[in-house]
Write a structure and sequence with these properties.
21 helices; 28 strands; elongated; 7-stranded mixed beta sheet; 37% helix; 5-stranded antiparallel beta sheet
Length: 656
């Protein structure tokens, strides 16, 4: 390799990180990039292109990870960590990084009891069973009365205007009382006294609650609110949010997370009558005991979870001195997702799969009919196009953006964008026994023939030869099963010895008009295999070599003119020529050649060449505005992998 520096002597600038997706979006390139999973936390979604044609039976088979939103603590991950011997403090500190362990005074919390809605008659009330020591208080006046024995139940209903009425049940008849000074009390009226207050629900069941039950006017009726100590509240929450059979440290972690979440909700509740609800929209809370309409008693509070609450009494995770929004979900599938708080970050979770469970990895089905019902403007669904993921974990992570493509009744094409959550809501589990459990999924039934054509096209375009049988079968199978993304394959082929050898051979032919010697071919190819962004650096070394200078008679004017003609495909004007010739002694030939190769003029030409070779057309204005910067920063091999994994390339491959 006369006159050329050895590859090991190449000055390599720091490898540039993959361009942020926010930049890609700003450049208008969202339709062309296919993202790879990343090894660390991601700050933004990754643009992808996954096209799933409608199967013949109209059902898309899917595989997925996790159950729930995936933010904050994984409950199954906490159990896995406890299995490994880790403490509750370690578990919660890891799931909520940057937070501190803090003690919080035990203050009351007000819980909206959503299950106590309108009965068959449409009436809303707060209906409690008579018990020794039961009292009623008109909070508006402060009047309190020990309710007399005799009636089996007392209830509060809406009165005139904003007033409330206290009624008693004798036999089967409800009658108004004036126990609180008048029939229409100011309100709100609350019940208290016994350790447990038994509340009747519209479905005929009953629940026992600690604290006091308040009847608060709302929308022409009343809603029931349980106001109780936070520690007492957790006695009913933890067993409903975690399995009572779990290890003590996992249950303690759940108690800390639930306490932190509750305190945050209380601190940030709007100025209203309650702080938190009792459903999965907040935290599940069914009181202390349930009694079915048939009389079956179920104890909610159990020893293991009550012990976890007691062992962590008043402990919360705090950020900036205040309890955190400690979100949690059943399973994150191996990666948590960001939640808009500095301590709710996307991070890899190796604990989530330690304890065997059915939600870490799952399979399901989504019917085209499900999506058509949820998104009627799509008409007849033809395909699902996943366009963005969060970049974390298998298949590129959770789905964040989807486009549903179909045909309307008049035959026109339709395109309906939605989110990953929108797709999930079309067929959710457990409402659907075979539905989706999270937004982290991929379709497993991609057409293998479609992938065969894609692999064949990539081999021809990136390696310059037909695919061998083994490669064709292996790559097509992995693409069809979702084990491999199109960009992963394109980048693997692009940085293979075969393709990097072609790149080096092309540079030698273009610059030196000869084939590379074995040392040069192997050495420069190894550089590109290690870091495919170094195409410009390799080209600059060859253009700036002593051999290229010698080819041009060791004359700076001839050498600069050759750069213009070979790199920019034009002659320099006199001012340009004089300026660059004057810089040769100062900057050196390699630095000048690198500047030429990375220039906007050169980058635009290289983008145009890749478009013609891979997409069979000239670059459009949007691509011309964005891709030159990408090719300058990441190199021709990387841009080729982007284009070869685009939806346009896939469609073109089917016609070849």
């Amino acid at each position: 390799m006369p006159g050329l520096p050895r590859p090991s002597q190449l000055l390599r600038p720091p490898a540039r990180a993959m361009m942020a997706v926010t930049t890609v979006a700003a450049l208008g390139l969202a339709g062309l990039l296919v993202g790879l999973p990343v090894a660390g936390p991601a700050a933004a979604d990754v643009v992808v292109q996954e096209v799933y044609e409608r199967p013949a039976d109209g059902v898309f088979p899917v595989e997925g990870h996790g159950w729930g939103h995936g933010r904050g603590m994984s409950q199954w991950g906490a159990q896995g960590a406890a299995t490994l011997g880790l403490s509750a403090d370690t578990i919660t500190a890891t799931y909520y990084p940057g937070t501190t362990r803090t003690l919080l005074p035990d203050r009351p919390i007000k819980v909206l009891l959503n299950n106590d809605g309108p009965g068959a008659s449409g009436l809303t009330d707060t209906d409690v069973a008579m018990a020794a020591g039961l009292t009623a208080t008109d909070e508006g006046t402060g009047a309190t009365l020990a309710l007399p024995a005799g009636p089996s139940r007392y209830r509060v209903v809406a009165g005139l205007g904003s007033a409330e009425r206290l009624q008693r049940l004798d036999g089967s008849s409800w009658t108004d009382t004036n126990y609180l000074g008048r029939v229409d009390a100011t309100g709100p009226i609350s019940f208290a006294g016994p350790t447990f207050l038994r509340l009747a629900l519209p479905d005929g069941s009953q629940r026992d609650y600690r604290g006091r039950l308040r009847a608060v006017r709302s929308a022409g009726g009343v809603v029931s609110i349980d106001e109780l100590r936070l520690e007492d509240y957790l006695l009913g929450v933890v067993p409903r949010e975690a399995f009572s059979s779990w290890l003590p440290e996992a249950l303690k972690a759940q108690a800390i997370a639930a306490r932190s979440y509750s305190a945050y909700k209380r601190d940030h509740a709007p100025s209203g009558s309650y702080d938190i609800c009792d459903t999965t929209s907040c935290q599940v809370f069914d009181g202390s005991r349930t009694i079915s309409a048939a009389g079956t008693v179920t104890e909610i509070e159990v020893a293991s979870t009550s012990q976890a609450v007691a062992a962590t009494s008043t402990v919360v995770r705090a950020f900036g001195g205040r309890a955190i929004f400690a979100e949690f979900s059943s399973s994150n599938g191996g990666w948590s997702t960001a939640g808009g708080q500095p301590y709710l970050v996307a991070q890899r979770d190796d604990w989530d799969g330690v304890a065997p469970n059915s939600v870490h990895t799952w399979t399901g089905r989504v019917g085209a009919a499900d999506l058509e019902r949820s998104f009627p403007t799509v008409g007849t669904l033809r395909r699902i196009r996943v366009t963005a993921r969060d970049g974390n974990g298998d298949w590129g992570g959770r789905v964040s953006a989807v486009v549903l493509e179909g045909v309307a009744a008049d035959g026109s094409a339709t395109s309906v964008p939605t989110t990953g959550a929108g797709g999930y809501s079309a067929a959710p589990w457990p409402a659907r026994s075979d539905g989706l459990r999270s937004t982290w999924w991929h379709v497993t039934g991609v057409s293998t023939p479609q992938m065969v054509k894609l692999v064949q096209a990539m081999y021809l375009d990136l390696l310059g030869r037909p695919a061998d049988d083994g490669g064709l079968r292996g790559w097509s199978s992995q693409l069809a099963s979702g084990q491999l993304t199109a960009q992963s394959l394109a980048l693997s082929l692009g940085r293979s010895p075969e393709n990097t050898g072609r790149v080096v051979t092309g540079l030698y032919a273009e610059v030196l008009a000869r084939a590379p010697d074995p040392v040069g071919l192997d050495g420069w190819s190894a550089v590109l295999q290690s870091d495919p962004t170094q195409v410009a650096a390799v080209a600059a070394a060859i253009y700036g070599s002593e051999e290229h200078f010698a080819v041009n008679g060791h004359d700076a004017r001839r050498w600069v003119t050759a750069l213009y003609r070979q790199v920019l495909l034009r002659d320099p004007d006199p001012a340009e020529l004089a300026a660059w010739v004057g810089q040769v002694p100062t900057l050196g030939r390699t630095a000048i050649a690198r500047g030429f190769y990375d220039s906007p003029e050169s980058s635009q030409r290289r983008v145009q060449t890749l478009y013609v070779n891979l997409l069979g057309r000239s670059v459009d204005p949007t691509g011309l505005a964005g891709w030159p910067a990408v090719v300058a920063q990441q190199g021709d091999i990387t841009l080729a992998s982007y284009l070869a994994s685009s939806a346009e390339y896939l469609a073109r491959a089917q016609l070849r």
